[in-house]
Amino acid sequence: MRYERPEKLRDVRRLQRSIASKKKPYFVRYLSWRFWKFERRDYWRKPKGIDNKMRLQLKGYPPIVKSGYGTSRNIRGLHPSGLQPLVVSSMRDLEGADPERHIIYISSTVGLRKRVELAKAAEEKGFRVANA
Q1: CB 106 within 8 Å of CB 119
Q2: pLDDT tens for each residue of 49-67
């Protein structure tokens, strides 16, 4: 995906609105509302039964995953602020990044001491840190 930087503040605001307004249904596993064992693991599984009402997309049953629910290409994968997320695990990763284009996530494998250093260095360079 190629990132096209919005030239005006108005374009940035419109991009943020389009990211925030994109509502997707919560896709549930069939019968997860009925059985406790599915409720614990209610991750998506495609309904495949021959008489499955959800697979037949009958009224009153939850929606199934389809390609039409996807986000548009120009906002896919962006943070709600309109910036591209960038996972950082060392100081070297900060060097090629742009504060106007990227928002920083510090990797979960980084320890506390190095995490504090990375957060401090990122904020000095003008980055927003999402998980500090």
Answers
A1: yes
A2: 999 999 999 999 999 999 8
CA 26/CA 124 separation, integer angstroms: 39
Asked if residue 79 has pLDDT above 90, the reply is: no
Bridge partners, 87 (sequence order): 105
Average pLDDT over all residues of the chain: 85
Q: Are 1 and 77 in contact (CB under 8 A)?
A: yes
Cα 114 versus chain centre, distance = 25
Strand order across the 128-129 sheet: 84-88, 102-106, 128-129
Q: How far apart are the first and last CA of the chain?
A: 27
What is the SS3 assignment for 10?
helix
